Amino acid sequence: DISSLGIVNDKGEIASEQFVRKFCDDYCLMRYARARSWIVEKASAMLLETLKWRWQIRPDLITAQQVKVQASAGSNYHNGFDKYGHPVFYMRASRDPPGSTQEKLDLLFYNMEEGVRRMNSETGVEKFVYIIDLKGFSITQSGADAKLSQSWLNALQNHYPERLSKVFVIDSGMMFTGFWNVISYFIDPESRRKMTFLTLDQFKKSIPTSDYFTVDTLEEYYGGTLPVKVTDAQHAKALAAMKNVPTTEVDEKKVAPKKSFFSLKK
């Protein structure tokens, strides 16, 4: 009986059997079992917490229309696939737009759900790859949002288990060190093992021998041949629109001001 599981949102609505069965296919059950070392009780408890979270948050119902303002800045987006068909997501700190924590989380969750929809469990594609570009990261300029980071990491680790293939952190720099000391506490050892820190130049030089990429699977800025999904000019226009600045005042040849990916500044 689904109602006995206690999956209830803050409106008092009980999750339907259709909701539970749609999420809990065989591949899902296997991912949760692997995530908890095949210990059934732990895997079941983890899955139940995810069902409660999904019924409350409903990340599967977030639409492109809801996140289009945040998405227009080009700070967090999907573009292409790696060698194995894993969706590749780019996060660019220098393009972080104004917005609330919830607006930024909505975009993160929307992209994760879109990534899952682009996967094919039957062919073994169940994970995604992140390229997190921290060039321009500035705590003093914008203020790092620990709440946003913790919420995303919690969701990634506890509600999207066995979905992360690899994270490439580019140009983290000294400014990021202090922030990393805070958020690394919330990252489990297995996830940290999947993270590689390197400079943009090192990343580009690694492409010929990369286990994940070829030049045709990466954006041009990162050493590939894929067109950049959001250009600097498009980002500048989007940022101007968010700040209610006429777009005619934006010089399309200029790169937009750099802001922290974790900004809450309005």
Automatic annotation (TrEMBL):
InterPro entries: CRAL-TRIO_dom (IPR001251), CRAL-TRIO_dom_sf (IPR036865), CRAL/TRIO_N_dom (IPR011074), CRAL/TRIO_N_dom_sf (IPR036273), PI_Transfer_CRAL-TRIO (IPR052578). Residues 65-230 form the CRAL-TRIO domain. GO terms for molecular function: phosphatidylinositol transfer activity. It comes from the Eukaryota. This is CRAL-TRIO domain-containing protein. PROSITE patterns: CRAL_TRIO. Coiled coil: none annotated.
